[in-house]
């Protein structure tokens, strides 16, 4: 994605997330294996933000560690005490002091916003020559959010937090999405004048609207078309809601692209999973993390992909099959009750029911690879103890425990001979 040197983002991620009732900082709670703050950062990156400044605080070392590993273009700034959203944004003051572009402020707990919406938001801010633009949405149930108060000319005059609302203000259903576009040089004095005289004794970022109006700055409001992008996660129930929304959004996209999802309400597929045309995903399939699945595959029912899988075309991953960090070439069948992890599986391979790649040594904690070359056929109930390699067209007898490599076209078997004891039952 092309970055725009005139746009930087500040992401608020210092709060504890009291309402989550968790040891873990809220922004590290995950949807499809990816922390909330990481979804927000990916969206910023896709919207072209030049640099992301993440404000960390509560258990900040955990958040910083995750960010430095996974988002190398982002920097973390510490907010030692969490004194409110306005105070949090002010932590970026020295980093942004000389910056003449527009600063996008986002919350680390709103993972559903899309890059397309952020781009439209930024364009709207520029086209309006605004100094402050706030993103809002119209919600049927605005409870919990700050309300956007407009004057008789429909201009945004202030934002009032639910806890500070009058009874009349509580009936307003235009809410603050917690996202702002700021002409930094024009507004940077706001933080020196910000007060905490409200019901929570916090320094509210939302006060910038009233402040901007009083200073004669151009303040505008951008109403998001798709209100579900504004969902801010404060509780476990909202985390589940965000998961469902993100999932359904991706399933609809996949269906538009030619993938059959037999029963969307019983299927979960991470947005970081690509699937090719004419692949069919049967019910109760769960696909987590980043994966690439080809065309004309059959996945499920009851398949579990845990991430980092590449599956070529015409592959069958059947019921009760778990796959992790594996590459599967075309026309291969893994039809029933198998675990394939840390494996390279060739083309035209048949993996019989109940085959297990034993990839993990629980004493050394090491993971090892299994390589299965083209055309190999593995009998049911086989254990492949990694590291191990099966040659092209190798044939493994059912019930074998394979600890050594098997050559091309060879039969590998470790089965003990069958005995028959005559008249034993009598
Ligand atoms: C905030 C807005 C509210 C808006 C809602 C949208 C304020 C005062 N209120 O409320 O108008 O409708 O978001 O979701 O801005 N944070 C810090 N440091 C702090 C406080 C918060 O980094 O000192 C971070 C939190 O980690 C979180 C984000 O800021 O990611 C928002 O804070 P939160 O407490 O969730 O605000 P809301 O009450 O949801
Ligand atoms: Ca929130």
Distinct small molecules: uridine-diphosphate-N-acetylglucosamine, calcium ion
Rg, Å, rounded: 27 Å
Largest sheet: 9 strands, parallel
The number of helical runs is: 10
Query: How much beta, percentage-wise?
Result: 25-35%
Q: Any low-confidence stretches, pLDDT <50, length ≥5?
A: none
Question: What would you say this structure looks like, in words?
Answer:
- By secondary structure, the protein is of the alpha/beta class.
- The chain has ten helices and 37 strands.
- The protein is elongated and about 100 Å long.
- The model has no long low-confidence stretch (mean pLDDT 97).
- The chain has a nine-stranded parallel beta sheet, with helices on one face.
- Calcium ion (CA) binds at residues 107, 109, 232, 234.
- The site of calcium ion has 4 residues, from loops.
């Amino acid at each position: 994605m092309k970055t725009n040197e005139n746009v930087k983002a500040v992401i608020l991620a210092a709060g504890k997330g009291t309402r989550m009732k968790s040891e873990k900082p809220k922004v590290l709670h995950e949807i499809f294996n990816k922390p909330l703050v990481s979804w927000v950062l990916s969206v910023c990156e896709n919207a072209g933000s030049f640099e992301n400044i993440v404000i960390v605080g509560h258990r900040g070392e955990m958040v910083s560690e995750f960010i430095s590993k996974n988002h190398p273009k982002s920097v973390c700034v510490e907010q030692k005490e969490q004194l409110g959203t306005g105070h949090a944004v002010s932590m970026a003051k020295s980093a942004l002091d000389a910056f003449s572009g527009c600063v996008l402020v986002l919350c680390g707990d709103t993972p559903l916003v899309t890059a397309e919406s952020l781009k439209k938001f930024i364009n709207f801010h520029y086209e309006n020559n605004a100094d402050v633009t706030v993103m809002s949405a119209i919600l049927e149930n605005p409870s919990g959010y700050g309300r956007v108060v407009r004057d008789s000319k429909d201009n945004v005059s202030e934002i009032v937090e639910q806890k500070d609302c009058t009874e009349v203000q509580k009936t307003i259903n235009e809410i603050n999405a917690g996202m702002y576009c700021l002409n930094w040089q024009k507004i940077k004095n706001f933080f020196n004048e910000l007060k905490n005289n409200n019901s929570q004794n916090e320094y509210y970022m939302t006060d910038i609207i009233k402040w901007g109006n009083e200073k004669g700055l151009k303040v505008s409001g951008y109403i998001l078309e798709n209100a579900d992008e504004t969902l801010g996660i404060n509780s476990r129930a909202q985390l589940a809601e965000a998961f469902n929304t993100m999932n359904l959004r991706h399933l609809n996209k996949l269906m538009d692209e030619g993938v059959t999802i037999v029963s969307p309400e019983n299927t979960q597929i991470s947005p970081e999973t690509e699937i090719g045309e004419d692949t069919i995903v049967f019910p109760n399939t769960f696909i987590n993390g980043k994966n690439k699945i080809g065309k004309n595959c059959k996945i499920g029912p009851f398949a579990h992909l845990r991430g980092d899988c590449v599956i070529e075309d015409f592959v069958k991953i059947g019921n009760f099959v778990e796959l992790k960090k594996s590459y599967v070439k075309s026309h291969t069948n893994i039809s029933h009750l198998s675990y394939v992890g840390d494996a390279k599986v060739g083309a035209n391979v048949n993996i019989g029911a109940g085959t297990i790649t034993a990839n993990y040594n629980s004493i050394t904690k090491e993971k090892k690879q299994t390589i299965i070359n083209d055309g190999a056929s593995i009998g049911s109930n086989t254990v492949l103890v990694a590291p191990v390699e099966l040659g092209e067209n190798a044939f493994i007898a059912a019930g074998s425990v394979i600890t050594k490599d098997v050559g091309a076209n060879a039969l590998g078997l470790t089965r003990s001979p069958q005995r028959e004891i005559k008249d034993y039952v009598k």
